Amino acid sequence: MKKRGIGFASIFYGTGYGNGFPDISNAIAELGKDGMVTIYAGATEVGQGAKTILSQIAAEVLGVSEKEINLICEDTSITPDAGTAAASRQTYNTGNAIKIAAENLKEEMIAIAIEKLGLNSSVGLAVKDGSIFLKIYPEKGISFKEIASLVEEKRLRRAGNFTAQTTRMDEDTGQGAPYWPYTFSAYGVEVEVDILTGTVEVLRSVCAQDTGRTINPKLVEGQIDGGFAMGLGYAIYEDLNIQEGKIKNNRLTNYLIPTALDMPEVKKILIEDPESTGPYGAKGIGEPVTIAAAPAILNAIYNAIGIRMKEIPVTPEKLIKALRKKEMEA
Amino acid sequence: MEIKEVFQTKEIKKTLEILEYYQHQCKIIAGGTDLIIQLREGKEKPIALVDISNIEELKEVKETAEWIEIGSAVTFTQIIGISYLQNKLAALVEAAASVGSPQIRNAATIGGNICNASPAADCIPPLLALDAIVVLQRKNIIREMHLEDFITDKGKAALEADELLTKIKFKKLQINQGLGFSKLGFRKALAISKISTAVYIDREQNNRCKEIRIANGALGRCGLREKKVEEYLLEKTLDKTTIHQGGIKLKEEIEKRLHGRSTVAFKKEAVIGVFQKAFKKALECCDTEGSI
Q1: Which whole number is the average pLDDT over A209-230?
Q2: Residue B20: how many CB atoms within 10 A of its CB?
Q3: Which of the four CATH numbers 3.30.365.10, 3.30.470.20, 3.40.50.720, 3.90.190.20 does domain A2-14+179-329 have?
Q4: pLDDT at A114 over 70
Q5: How far apart are alpha carbons B130 and B121 in whole angstroms?
Q6: A201, A287, A317, A329: which is the annotated catalytic residue?
Q7: Do A324 and B270 touch (CB under 8 A)?
Q8: pLDDT tens digit string along B246-261?
Q9: Confidence check: pLDDT of B291 > 70
């Protein structure tokens, strides 16, 4: 016999290292002799899409397509430190550092353009598609390549760095501003509980995700699918089964993670309320998309069978035990 | 000790010669989804392997007037795709489809599933419920035995060192005969059975149980028949009360058998749900037109 239930959970999560720890990202923007822009930042791409999003930010500043940005993040001998790919901080922190570096480079390129074009000021100048020109008289312009040729050094390079602002919490009162910014997220799920076998199936799910500003919708949606899958594993599958200090489920045949067949469709709602300190208003979403999934599932189980499960994962064994206990009490 | 020879044969005769020569030092490999892991873990240490996955004769499924015969090297993917099994033997197809993942089903064979004799083998309960017969061949001798007698213990089958399991056969189902299967895994794919149950029912016109065979996987040292529950249900009217009582009886059996194991508290309860599903499917199957 199966019973259905619906559950919700919402969270807010402080991104970055926090608690007054200096959270620094460094980046370099460079104009090569060929007129192409290269960004150097030691931000690890671990499949989350950092390279894409960081390229998009630089491209937006310099008025070119993100495909024309050469982003180097893997080689620590030539990239400045941009901190860890952790704490959901790369879009916000390194995004800001790259935005600043690209803006510094652009400022320098505009100064060279003003001099070469014999203009009085930067008013009315556009930076677009690899050249700098006067909007009211587009023939008056200069390409990135020409600008590069006017520079004596091999490359025109400008640095940018960003340090997030947090304060230490007061140890006695707990007061302070330990994180900034905060990202908000909510999940709604519907589950079906088989009360004879203790299995739980998540039938559908919806995620409302605050992004500040969505730099790349497809990547955010991908993060939500991945985050929900991890939350689902956390809630009902992933069991280390530690007995006398030993991990019994020490291989993927018995340490279960959800398969594609176990994943429900996740409807996504992206909520944009630009964060004033974020690059183009963006905030980190990496961890936030996972956090509310498990509590939403446990709330839905409660809604379905009236039992508050207080330990995860909610395996069929635990659920059957709880159901029988409830029957005995009734 | 390490593997010195690997043979790939295209005919049964050649395979039997190799088996006769090497005896216990040779292992038969078909899909290899179990054997390769056992070799890697050092649980099996043959000096020779003989690969039977290219023997056409072993890869055939035949339908005769009375029987279905499945070659031992038939893969689960093959079984899932056979159109004449989809109605009356949907339970067998369901069991085959519940094995591992598409990649595993493409390689793994029904013969391997049987000879490996894992307690959780997905195809063994439906074949036990069908009272399937295994056909075993050695040089100049062919013998048949009931699957139930063939599987003797966890990981053990009554296969002689020079013998090859060539096919599995069972009688086609008629109207008023039905097979049902249900598996409890903890996720929808790549899930090792926690419980799998198959039920065969032969129903009389007056809705009484003329014959019943119940087989379970992962509830003992190997796939096995639940004879006490079968006896209990014989001649009973096939209704909700009977299903319920059958479940309770099965629970008692499991509780006795798994006494002292950490899984008993869960399995004795969950088996009721799995049994009920298989039983209901078997009854529905009784209504499906025969003869397959």
Answers
A1: 98
A2: 14
A3: 3.30.365.10
A4: yes
A5: 15
A6: A287
A7: no
A8: 999 999 999 999 999 9
A9: no
